[in-house]
Structures are given as structure tokens and as C-alpha cells.
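Researcher: Last one for today. Full complex below.
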Amino acid sequence: MYVAAEGVEHHPLVPIWQELVVGSIAFALLCFVLMKFVMPRMEAMYQARVDAIEGGLKRAEAAQAEANQLLEQYRAQLAEVRTEAAKIRDDARADAESIRTEILAKAREESDRIIAAGRDSLAVERQTIVRELRAEVGGLAVDLASRIVGESLADEARRKGTVERFLTDLESAGAR
Amino acid sequence: MSGQLVAAEGLPWPPSVGDFYPPDLAGPWVTKFTLMVWLAVGILIIFFMATYRNPKLVPSKGQWYAESIYGLVRDNIAREQMGKDGIRFAPYFTVLFCFIAVTNLFGVTPGLQISPNSHIAFPIVLAAITYVMYLYIGVRKQGLGRYLKQSLIIPGVPWPMHFLLIPIEFLQNFINRPVTLAVRLFANMFAGHLILLVFTVGGFVMLASDNIFIQATSIFSFLMAILMAFFEVLVSLLQAYVFVTLTANYIGTSLADGH
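Model: Here's the assembly. Have a good evening.
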């Protein structure tokens, strides 16, 4: 009924010697082929990849460092340029201010000068006019007095006419 | 009762050791088991040759798979267990890992349904190679005397203890290591196959029953068989990993100075 009844019951812990031989040969063949043709290339590839990755990382790191350095440099330059620009702007502003005050001062001086010159010439003119007038008024007064004295004072009408005439003469002399 | 069931369905029930020894196909050299081993060798050679015929720095998909396996064994087993020295053993460990994993997975491969490693002959071969390797490397690295001293004598214990400790250490390092290595792999695959048989064949046996309730219960048996098949995949890979890790560990202790 059981397989034992067939008469070939095998103890499982006793190896079949043919299988020992086949197992050894087959495994030896497998080891030979794979360890000769495949595994060395695999290890070489493994190393190559490790190198490639590590080399790549190193290169990337170097590039990163360089980029950082450049960035830092550019930043420093930018800051420098900015301060310089600010300085230039301040200078320009200061210059503009000083030029403006200078021009203003000059203009004021000029106008003062012109006003002073005008005043001077006015004063001189007035002086001359006063001098001329004074001379003329003296002459006129003398003239008038002599006429008043020279003609008779009796006649009111004539006297009136004399004054009238004098003033008319005066006017015509002034118009001239 | 069980005899009637077997008669009804034609399936051997309950599963027994005899299920692991199907009739030879053509003599003791050409059996299902020897053919499966050759198949595993063929699959692995073709896989690695195909994926690594023209390796590139930026890998193709196949190359990437092959390299992932190699990388796993190289970094997670060899280097983890042995340090930098382990890397030169990585090629052998990779072959060993792949061979065990593929032959283990035959246990859940449709059409094959049994792992060659459930015959103890194949685990014995692999464990023997590990055994010879770590003994040879230990003796070559340290010399026979120093290697034996390092393997057998624990420093810093009172001398009478050595009467007890030396035999234990001898058993531990020179007998138990290879035997457990072989038996662990064998027993896992053997038990895994047995479990699958129990639930699958058991399901059919219950289905053939006259009792409607027993027939209905067979569904749980089949569900369990499916669950266990997934579990077997895990066990297959885990056992391959364990075998290689222990091999690396043993060789590592042979290389190491001091106890």
C-alpha cells in the first residue's frame, strides 16, 4: 500500500553516490564557466562604476566649489560697484549743490553790481542836474529881479503882464 | 480508510519519503534530479553569458539584474562577513548563491515541483566544498599548528577546562559546521516539499471523499497549499542566503587572526 511496499524505500539522509558525482561535476562546470568568463568582468565593471561615480562626484564637487567662489566674487564686485555708484551719485549731488550756490552768488553779485552802477550814474546825473539847475535858477532869479526892478511896479496890470511874460519865457525856454 | 482513498484517486496518501525518489528515467545517472541540476547549470550559464556578453557602464536591464545579484552577495554577504578580504571570494559566493537559489526555486516551479536539494547528495557536495575551502584557507594562512590552536583553544580559561572545551570546539568547528550546513539546506527543502504535498494531495484526497463537508473543507487545503508555495519561495532564497553567509563566516574565521 505504501511506497515501501514497492521495495525501493530510500533513507533520505543517505546520499545517492551518482548524484554526488553529477552534483560535483555540474557545480564545478558552473563555477568554472562563470568565474572565468563572467565574474571578473563583473568585478571590473563594479570597480569602473564606483570610479565613475566617485570621480563624477568629485568633479561635481569641484565645479560646485568653483561656482560658489565665482558667485562670491561677483557678489563682492557687485557690492563694490554699488558703493562706488552711490559715492558718485553723492559727489554729483554735492557738486550740483555747490555749482548752484556759486552761480546764485555770482548772479546776486552781478545784480548788486548793476544796481550799484545804476544808482551811481543816477546820483551823478542828479548832481549835474542839480548843479545846472542851481546855476540856471540863480540866473533866472537875477533876471527876474532885474526885470521887476527895471519896470515900474505901479501898474498892477502891467505887473501882472510882466509875470505872465516871464513865465511864458520860462516855459518856452524849458521846452527848448 | 486511507487505502480506500488512494484507490479512489490514484494518489499516494499520505505523502512519504518514497515521493522523493521517483523512478529513474534511464539508469541512476539520468534521473529527474540530475537533469534538474544540469538545467540549473544551463540556466545560470545562459543567463550570465547573455546579460554579461557586452557589459556597459550604464547597464541594460539584464545586466542590471546580474549585477544586483553580484552586488548583493559582494556587499551584503562577503564584505559584511569578511571585511575587505571577502571581495575576492565574491565571485564564488555569487555562483554558490545563484546555484542554491535556482535549485531551491525548482521546488515551486510548475512541472518540476521539487528541489534537487531535497536529495542530500547535492547539499553535501556544496557543504564539502565550503568545508575544504575554510580548512585549506585556514591552514595556508596561519599554518596547521596555529590554525588548530586558534580553532580549538579558547584563550583565557583555566587549563582544566580545556579537557572539556577542546572536544566541544573540535566538534563545533570541524564536524558540526559542515554537517549542519548540508542538513539545514536539505531539511528545509525536504520539509517544504512535504508540506506542499500534504496540502495539495490532501486537498485532492478530501475532494474525492463521499462526504460533502470534507469536500468543502478541501478548499482550505488548497488555499494553504498556495500560501505555502509563496512561503517556499521565501525559504528558498533565505536558505541560499544563509548557506552563503555561513560559508563566508567560516572562511572569515579562518582568515582572522586570534580567536
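The helical segments of chain A are 17-150, 156-175. The longest helix of chain A spans residues 17-150.
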